[in-house]
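Q: How would the structure tokens look for this protein?
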Amino acid sequence: MKRKAIALLSGGLDSTLAVKMMLDLGIEVEAMNFTSPFCNCTGRNSGCKSEAVRVAGEYNIPIKVLHKGIDYLEIVRNPVHGYGKGVNPCIDCRIYLFKKAREYMLEIGADFVFTGEVLGQRPMSQRRDTLRVIERESGLEGLLLRPLSARHFEPTVAEKEGWVDRTKLLAIEGRSRAPQMKMAEDLDVKNYPCPAGGCLLTELSFVPKIKDVFTHSEELNLRDFRLLKTGRHFRITPESKAIMGRSEVDNNQLETIRQPGEAALTWMDGNTPVAIVVGEQNEEIFKMSARILLRYTKAEPGTECRIEMRLNGSTSIFSITNDMNANDVERYIVA
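A: Here is the predicted structure in token form.
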């Protein structure tokens, strides 16, 4: 009887190699991929999801893509096992993913789950002790196979039952990717992305933005976190923010993601960033946002400046004095 396994497939080198190994060992594979508002490589036509879908297509295996939702945001806000150097709850995140994988395993009648994890590769979630915690709390004890490092661990059910030949599994350990790259060459695995971190939660510069949303949000929503990837953020009131483009790309992105009921501001008489106001909208918030905006233009200090505001399909113009200095603006900067 051919056995079936669930692959957690990111599309990166390690998970791709794990899939290739399992297929070569005669296992029927179905893949799962998870998208996140904190992934810094997700784009419309590129990124983690697209790489995973590409790999699944190359190996002709089904793939299920799941979006981490509000339940995941609550885990980020209050992780049981704490954060890494940023606001990255890596252990709780893995438990979350593996619980979802276990549910899907049971749903489709698969026999076990496997990943491309390597012992010691990541300092928080891939230590021996944390790997055991993750297995136990996800309900996958004995059912979670890590083919690239399997011989560093006790045999899983798949190995004990002879579904997978343990002698064909590997004992890779540590942060070097040289063994995987050599293996990719031997197995003719090509077009894999360069190894890199893909989670904004690990980036220290991102921490203030995340904490600001948690502080000012009773109810979490995914859009608030997706917005954090674009531009400079300024907290105007507890219920409102101004987001300002750093580049033409940012400016275009802000115009695209602006929703009905959200104002966009630009300085009329020179090159200017775009600033959008999210959350509460009123005249005082617009004026403060415009004063901050002018600080990032070449408008002469102390001059009256014309601001164009676009809101709900209408355009209006108001004047505001360019009177804020660096210290004034600093009080509003999130990141």
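The chain has a mean pLDDT of 92.

The chain has two domains: 4-187, 230-330.

Upvote if useful.
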